[in-house]
Amino acid sequence: MRLRLATWNVNSVRLRAEQVARFVDEHALDVLCLQEIKCRDGEFPTNAFVDAGLPYVRVKGQKGSHGVAIASRLPIEDAPPLDVCREGHARAVSAVVAGIEIQNFYIPAGGDVPDRTVNPKFDHKLDFYERLTAEMSRRDPNAPLVIAGDLNIAPGENDVWSHKQMSRIVSHTPVEVEAMRALQASLGFIDLAREAIPEPHKLFSWWSYRAADFRKSNRGLRLDHLWVTPGLRDAAFRMGAASCRVHDDVRAWERPSDHAPVTADLYL
Question: Cα separation of 43 and 23, whole Å?
Fold first, then answer.
């Protein structure tokens, strides 16, 4: 059985419900993890997802901002919710699909100043990572677990358009990269995108709206991630290599999100 997962910071699910339906149809998705849905639970366009073939949903919404959701073609079971956001924002939602725990996150961006002593938003971001790392450190690495979402850090030198310039900018500073590496090491998480498209290939999933032609300027960042525990290594590499890609063509659709979806296949 092939299970196709996707993560997408959709930047308003109600505004882009038709784009979601198109993407689900074109790529035969089984599970879609969304971030920045920008609606409350009762405002989520459930009927549109039913029509798109993803009738099972888990939503953690919030008025005006944030918000995350998991939609699935297959039945969803409950998974333990993770209380790792000290501000109480709707930034985490969980589910179990086909025996696999999925944790979907929208981690804080962190503001503009990369100093947690003077910037509460940056401190919140690092605190979120620290709490999540502590939680994962108590888990079994052989248990089937997926971490998905907009993790708001581009970790590698080739995950940003300019390592030298971005090393001073929030999303790629050394302290953030160290925090992400600690989370990845906590359970030995496998970064599926980098397994499928190794360094030194440039790989981005976000491009600013400021560029009139995002492909021409190509000042991107890889902020959106799909990770699996070692317990899912065989499922991820059943075909000999990880199957994971960034769908940058979606970023070129009319009125797009500034993030492109990322998909990966697991074979169960």
Answer: 21
When pLDDT is cut at 50, 70 and 90, the band that residue 212 belongs to is: confident
Q: Are 5 and 30 in contact (CB under 8 A)?
A: yes
Could you tell me the sign of the dihedral formed by the alpha carbons of 97, 92, 188, 24, in that order? positive
Asked if residue 31 lies in contact with residue 63, where contact means CB atoms within 8 angstroms, the answer is: no
Identity at 192, one-letter amino acid code: L
CATH code for the domain of 83: 3.60.10.10
- For residues 45 and 218, give the distance between their C-alpha atoms in angstroms, rounded to a whole number: 32
Measure the CA–CA gap between 167 and 5, rounded to whole angstroms.
31
Distance CA 199, CA 157 (A): 9
Contacts of 178 (CB under 8 A, 6+ apart): none
The 8 Å CB, 24+ separation contacts for 128-131 are 128/84, 128/85, 128/86, 128/91, 129/179, 129/180, 129/182, 129/183, 130/179, 131/84, 131/86
Domains in the chain: how many in total?
Answer: 1
* Percentage of the chain lying above the pLDDT 90 cut: 97
The token duo for 26 is 């074109």
Domain that holds residue 148: 2-267
d(CA 158, CA 220): 10
The token duo for 188 is: 């030995």
Asked if residues 181 and 130 have their Cβ atoms less than 8 Å apart, the reply is: no
Indicate the pTM of the whole model: 0.98
> What DSSP state is assigned to residue 170?
T
